[in-house]
């Protein structure tokens, strides 16, 4: 394993042919960190995630994942987009959806192999849905579908898991179950998620990446009303959270 950070951005700027979306971004995420990207709508959260994935290229600066350009290591990343563009009425089983995560990489063209199906079933078991493998996706609840999409992202056996608004449209019970799942996965994976819900991420992550054109990184315990006001431009309610950041030894500094 490389000693390089899992993610490193240096002096990154990006624009969609207009005003700067991201300016002079410096960011480091270490192995098995659990970080949340938060900020106001239009602040650049999803753009930052897409730069890390290699779906976008910076106008200035450098993005490295596992010490290399993102497109060279995409097989080591699992991604759950905010909008999966997956019609729940499409006649596909749960196992079919998870197998999509085996496409590309080192597998050959043609039917899925026994090994692909074995891995897909293992990931379904990991998210607690092994017995649902033969069910149509349309039969599942919203929370169960989110778990299927996590299993799909895990099917490539990634070392880095990137999630864009994974708890959108989940009720509180489902959100809690999802939180527990991510905590289990973090024992083996580096996880970065985009979220608008500070109450959710404050009980889960050890670093908060605050994005509003520029980036500032804070340990969870340092997220105060003043930080929130500066980030969102107004008062927001901060939900009480634990001090897991300090307990887990997470270190970070303002960028």
Helicity level, as a percent range? 25-40%
The low-confidence parts are 235-255
What would you give as the CATH superfamily of the domain at 7-83 and 159-247? P-loop containing nucleotide triphosphate hydrolases
Mean pLDDT: 82
Put simply, the count of helices is 8
Global outline: globular
State the total count of DSSP E strands: 9
Strand % is 15-25%
Q: Class by helix and strand content?
A: alpha/beta
CATH architecture of the domain at 7-83 and 159-247: 3-Layer(aba) Sandwich
Terminal-residue CA separation: 26 Å
CATH topology of the domain at 7-83 and 159-247: Rossmann fold
Strand order of the largest sheet: 5-6-7-3-8-9
What is the H-and-E element order?
Answer: EEEHEEHHHEHEHEEHH
The CATH class of the domain at 7-83 and 159-247, by name, is Alpha Beta
Q: Roughly how many Å is the radius of gyration? A: 18 Å
Biggest pleated-sheet summary: 6 strands, mixed
Walk me through this protein's architecture.
The protein is built from eight helices and nine strands. With 255 residues, it is an alpha/beta fold. It has a domain of 166 residues: P-loop containing nucleotide triphosphate hydrolases (Rossmann fold), CATH 3.40.50.300. Strands 5-6-7-3-8-9 form a six-stranded mixed β-sheet, sandwiched between helices. The chain has a three-stranded antiparallel β-sheet with strand order 2-1-4, covered by helices on one side. It starts with 6 loop residues before the first strand and ends in an 8-residue tail after the last helix.
């Amino acid at each position: 394993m490389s000693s390089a950070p899992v993610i490193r951005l240096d002096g990154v700027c990006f624009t969609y042919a207009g005003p700067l979306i991201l300016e002079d971004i410096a960011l480091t995420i270490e192995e098995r960190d659990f970080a949340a990207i938060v900020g106001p709508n239009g602040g650049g959260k999803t753009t930052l995630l897409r730069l890390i994935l290699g779906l976008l290229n910076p106008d200035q600066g450098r993005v490295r994942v596992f010490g290399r350009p993102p497109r060279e290591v995409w097989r080591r990343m699992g991604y759950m987009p905010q909008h999966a563009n997956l019609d729940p009425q499409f006649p596909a089983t749960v196992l079919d959806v998870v197998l999509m995560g085996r496409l590309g990489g080192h597998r050959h063209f043609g039917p899925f192999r026994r090994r692909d199906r074995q891995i897909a079933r293992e990931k379904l078991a990991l998210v607690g849905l092994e017995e649902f493998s033969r069910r149509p996706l349309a039969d599942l609840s919203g929370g169960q579908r989110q778990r299927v999409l996590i299993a799909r992202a895990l099917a490539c056996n990634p070392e880095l898991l990137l999630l864009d608004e994974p708890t959108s449209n989940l009720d509180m019970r489902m959100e809690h179950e999802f939180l527990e799942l991510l905590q289990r996965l973090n024992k083996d994976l580096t996880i970065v998620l985009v979220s608008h819900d500070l109450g959710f991420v404050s009980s889960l992550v050890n670093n908060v990446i605050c994005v509003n054109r520029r980036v500032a990184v804070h340990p969870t315990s340092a997220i105060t009303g003043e930080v929130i006001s500066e980030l969102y431009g107004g008062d927001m309610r901060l939900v009480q959270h634990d001090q897991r950041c300090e307990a887990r030894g997470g270190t970070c500094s303002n960028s």
